[in-house]
Design brief:
By secondary structure, the protein is α+β, with helices and mostly antiparallel strands. It has helices spanning 16-29, 91-99, 108-115, 117-126, 145-151, 178-186, 231-235, 249-265, 301-308, 313-326, and strands spanning 4-10, 36-43, 46-50, 56-58, 66-68, 71-73, 77-80, 134-138, 156-160, 170-172, 191-196, 201-210, 213-216, 220-224, 239-242, 272-279, 284-291. The protein folds into 3 domains: 4-106, Rossmann fold (3-Layer(aba) Sandwich); 112-130 and 198-326, ATP-grasp fold, B domain (D-amino Acid Aminotransferase, Chain A, domain 1), CATH 3.30.470; 134-196, 2-Layer Sandwich (Dna Ligase, domain 1), CATH 3.30.1490. This is D-alanine--D-alanine ligase.
Length: 328
Amino acid sequence: MKPNIAFVTGGYSGEAQISYMSAITIEKNLDKEKFNVYKIDIRPDGWMYESNKGEKIAVDKNDFTITIGGEKIRFQAVFIGIHGTPGEDGKLQGYFDLMNIPYTSCDAATSALTFNKRYTVAVAAFAGINVAKSLHLFKHTGIEPSVVSSLLQLPVFVKPNNGGSSIGMSKVNNKEDMAAALEKAFKEDDQILVEEFISGREFTIGVYKTQGEIKTLPFTEVISKKEFFDFEAKYQGLSEEITPAVVDESIAEKVRYTAKKVYEVFNCRGVVRIDFIYNEAKGEPYMLEINTVPGQTAESLVPQQVRAAGMELKDFYTELLKEALSVA
């Protein structure tokens, strides 16, 4: 009997638009011959399953079930495709843990930790992983832009501490631009991270676990046509993405090794995407952040890397679901 899989999309933040873009690819590549797939749209105004006939059926949040034609459908696993809250910050993961339903992403603790960029780099540094020097700022405490400029060496990146897709992010080259960058980031989040710029090549790598083994995908070099890899560069074609990256094997091995170490240190599950800057002067990769629900649009980095590995997305998603079901 085929397992019932809930594929959740949508979300409560501005990143929902990216979730719906990813949903097209995910839904098309979930293997219907192996799984009964039900797409659940999770929105602030309700959690709904839409049938093939267009009928919208509310999810019973008491046990995460839906009732179709008098039959209650229970799910054996959840494929999480929500970027931002509540799918990437641990909230849904905690809910599914209470329901005893396995899922394809990191657990609640890891998701909540990695959603907070500052806490992520703090834990990484404690584990001996290279990260940039940074400041963690809170809206309610306030800080003069000139003080930020004096504590860190310019240029710096200013970004919302929680969230993704580079929304609200700025690169500050001159101290006169600091105030505007802080204001922009604070519009997206009550906490922001200000991080010193590290020169080097930008690499991003998909890492996943299958049959208990941590594996890496062929990684990508990102060359932004803008000053940095912001929202437009990511989603509006303003970047060059070379997959697999053309690098010496000695460099590639350092990136793969560090990526596996990060995955292990943070107790990750499912597929994550880890962003690095490889500083050639020091010959070391520096971790930027961990994306626990990486984009899955046709142009997104993880699907590119899956194809570069000679795999079909359908088989890759099946592996993720099998891994989730195996720990149920």
